[in-house]
Amino acid sequence: MIAQLNDAYEFLTSKRPCGPKKEAIRAATYDLAKNDPNKEPFESLPEDAFTDVAPWERQLIQDKICGMRNSLESA
């Protein structure tokens, strides 16, 4: 489960050594995947939460990012 986050982090930091912290990546993933104003605080989640995402969560995140990109391009 943790391997996906670690693999992605190693790839990112091999390209950009001053990359973000793993916790920041997990927090951003959580924010994008859980669009609920009543969600529990990220800080209260287990240490391994959002080190991996389900395929449907991955698609949701991709759709949100594409939507943000499209809204920026049309602005």
Structure explained in plain terms:
By secondary structure, the chain is mainly α. It has one domain (2-73). Helix content is 60%, strand content 0%. The chain has three helices and no strands. It has helices at 2-15, 22-33, 55-73. It is globular.
Gap between N and C termini: 39 Å
Main sheet, how many strands, which sense, barrel?
none
Helix content: 55-70%
Radius of gyration in whole Å, from Cα? Answer: 14 Å
Mean pLDDT level: 84
User: How many runs of DSSP E, i.e. beta strands?
Assistant: 0
In terms of topology, how is this protein built?
Layout: H1 2-15, H2 22-33, H3 55-73
Notable characteristics:
3 helices; 0% strand; single chain; 60% helix; 75 residues; mainly alpha
Gist of the model:
The protein has 75 residues and is mainly α.
